[in-house]
Design brief:
Largest sheet of chain A: 7 strands, mixed
Radius of gyration of chain A: 23 Å
Helix content of chain A: 40-55%
Strand content of chain A: 5-15%
Number of helices of chain A: 17
Shape of chain A: globular
Oligomer: homodimer
Largest interface: A-B, 98 and 98 residues
Distance between the termini of chain A: 18 Å
């Protein structure tokens, strides 16, 4: 009966929850790891969360009671904030976000606060952008692998399609002009109107930043075709080592031939600050009509004024921002190093990355065959036996089987260590029959590096609760 | 060029901002009244805001520092809240909202916290509901007059239509079985598939509650046709006098023949608590599949966890809730009485109401002719010369010209007094030629009642900042 009564959207499966990406979260939820209460449970490494620098943020919060409308110092703003429902948002919020966006791009570009449009997280920002730019049936080209949530965010309620730009490991998954042209041509053959290209820079799941040349190729391409370029830059402040992050904002300033009406940035504080709960999404468009329309659409996903008020104070504090960004990068770099080194000690390579909250782990050597069936078989073993929830490349629409995304910033150092031990043991077991001597060598290395780390970890790691995912439970 | 590059939604005018409802807000913004700085400015009576009981709320906030994640007492929850992104929301938030919904309905019905789905305000809740229930081209029937924002909320991005159920002043705009059948039949003649009926109870703009009989007629009607009933109950706690508010939740409990899969409630804290800035929208559906789908869609408009945490504490405090509801009703009743009496003293009648934040004012006697052109002409005089922004009935799709919605809870007592004086003087001027003696009589009455009120007002009225509307400014 539901099928007759409800809409096609409600009765279809366009939401995309039937993916291993989400199945892994379910496995975690059924048996969640806990350092003392459930040490043999599944470790959640499928969640791109940034939990490493909350001590810095909390310290600031405690020193700035005026930033809250619920303190003695701030309560006089309570009624004005509770009542404020303008869809432009608080001026001080837009100013602070614009400034923060510039700062996370090395202050090499400026952002106009009047182009800052609010949305319900990056999720809402992507949907609003799709609603503004494309009609049902139109398509955006997206380099693969890409974030699985895009299928929900850009397609589900808009009727827009996402078509792959095929990238592979031969050039470290870089987007090429040829790949762009191929994707565009394929759409034309299928009589699908392409309305734009969607990129994620820094990349989720790759953890890499795009180089200047690639960005120039993209800008040139969208100008030639007169289509849009949506740049998801929600990982801008997670860049922890060279090369520096280059925003699309820099490229279009250098390129006088670019039609800026085609360029749109999606931003958020969910990854850079670790605030997914606060639902701060931003659309920054260089196109006046898109700013205008997106702002009207923001009525469906405005940021709570309580949160706008807090964020405005926090991000306009230069000293805090400097300290946070510095600490955040330092801690991410350290975590990355520990994890990448731990994996390499058992012969596992990852794509070399300099950003993000995850590694793109190459387990092709462990596949029984170079197929996605074999990838899924391996993934099931990793989730159910190794008891680590990582995300298989297929859930990111990766073109090659054998890659897995491993998130490392949503847990404390002890959990990382246990996860590394589990993976290492698993890899060694798989290799046992083949290279016993090599295995012993790795084992002694591992023991040494773990014990030296363990001492630091006990002193330094905060307790990091791992929240449930927003996409897991069946309802009621 | 924009028209080619952007979507049909972006280039169309489906948003409905080109309405006198919003034009009046623009007039206010260009010349906003201020008691000391701009005493001759436009008084904003087009905004249904509840600013009368903030002192009660702020007092609670100050006494409950644990409710905030930004206080010494609450900061230990900061990282957990900032990180929490589950689309079910905090359990304590859902529990508290369910309890509050029951309380505002006299605890005659209970609400299941597992059916509480979050959305970005009632705006988001309506859109999500429309996406769940109807396909593009399908229609909902809506009694007129109705809230102008519905055209944006339910139609704009969904492609759904709203068709009028014609109500008029002959029976105080009550919905009848005949009106329902007529609207349904008309849609059938036009080959439009009707997917449901949308009601607002208490009504915006009427300020009235629906009686049991009308609600029963509605439930019977949707069951007969096997279509949905969406009940917007966002003004539930604004009922300030008898008869009591009857929620649809009560009706379906009494009626064993009702298919509950057809029944959905939209709720919000924007009106009842006066928190539009916090963006707390709720979809409460009795249909499991709708709960499931709406929850997935809530990813586009989750409530900030900072706000969820605050609301959870606030609404689970029984003592506070009792006090707030009592004060709120008392102050709304007083304000209503002052305003309705002031108008009646110059011979202006309003629909007798018992709820809401506004009066439905009958100015038919002032129209040059009984047409909507005459209504607009009168409205322009009221906005530009009388300098009060009220909303003309036509913007609510009213079937009869001459009705105006006047909001009275978004200002302090002094502003109310000035607004009343302006309206009264205007009405008296219009009558001058005809009934000079009657006029003098009214004037002396007015002087008396105003001066006695003025004394109270100075002592009692808080400063009430009137924020800008979310739908006004042209962008960038």
């Amino acid at each position: 009966m539901g099928a007759q009564l409800l809409s096609k959207i409600a009765t279809g499966d366009g939401h995309g929850e039937n993916s291993p990406y989400f199945d892994g979260w379910k496995a975690y939820e059924n048996d969640p790891f806990h350092l003392t209460k459930n040490v043999h449970g599944v470790i959640q490494m499928g969640l791109a969360e940034n939990q490493l620098s909350f001590d810095v943020i909390q310290e600031w919060v405690m020193s700035n009671p005026k930033a809250s409308i619920c303190t003695l110092e701030g309560v006089r703003n309570f009624s004005a904030m509770a009542n404020f429902q303008e869809y432009h948002g608080l001026t001080e919020f837009r100013n602070a976000v614009a400034k923060f966006m510039a700062r996370t791009r090395g202050n090499r570009v400026a952002f106009d606060p009047d182009r800052i449009v609010m949305s319900g997280g990056a999720t809402g920002a992507h949907e609003v952008t799709a609603f503004c730019l494309a009609d049902p049936g139109d398509a955006f080209l997206v380099p693969i692998p890409y974030y699985p949530g895009f299928d929900r965010d850009l397609r589900w309620r808009t009727g827009v399609q996402l078509l792959p730009i095929i990238c592979d490991s031969s050039n470290n998954f870089k987007v090429t002009k040829r790949a762009l042209e191929n994707a565009f041509e394929k759409a034309r053959e299928d009589s699908i109107r392409v309305k734009g290209v969607l990129i994620t820079n820094p990349s989720n799941p790759l953890g890499t930043t795009m180089d200047r040349e690639t960005l120039r190729i993209l800008v040139k391409f969208v100008n030639e075709k007169s289509i849009h370029l949506i740049c998801d830059e929600i990982y801008a402040a997670t860049v922890f080592s060279k090369p520096d992050f280059i925003s699309i904002a820099e490229i279009i300033e250098e390129d006088i031939d670019c039609n800026c009406d085609l360029i749109h940035i999606v931003y958020s504080l969910s990854k850079d600050m670790g605030f997914p709960g606060f639902r701060v999404g931003i659309i920054y468009s260089y196109n006046d009509a898109v700013v205008d329309c997106a702002r009207k659409m923001s009525s469906f996903g405005l940021v709570s004024t309580q949160t706008q008020h807090l964020i405005a104070s926090m991000l306009s504090d230069d000293k805090f921002v400097e300290r946070f960004l510095e600490e955040n990068a330092k801690r991410l770099a350290k975590r990355y190093k520990i994890f990448a080194r731990g994996l390499s000690q058992v012969g596992i390579n990852c794509l070399k990355s300099n950003a993000g909250l995850f590694l793109w782990m190459d387990l092709r050597s462990l596949l029984k065959s170079q197929t996605f069936e074999a990838e899924m078989a391996l993934w099931r073993v990793i989730v159910n036996q190794v008891k680590i929830n990582v995300s298989p490349g297929s859930s990111f629409h990766c073109s090659e089987p054998g890659w897995f995304r491993v998130c490392y910033a949503n847990m404390d150092d002890r959990a990382v260590e246990i996860a590394l031990t589990r993976i290492s043991n698993f890899v060694l077991q798989n290799m046992e029959a083949e290279v016993p001597t090599k295995k012993q060598c790795w084992q002694s290395n591992l023991r040494l590096s773990f014990s030296s780390r363990m001492f630091d970890d006990i002193l330094m790691s905060p307790h990091s609760p791992i929240p449930q995912s927003p996409l897991v439970k069946a309802t009621t």
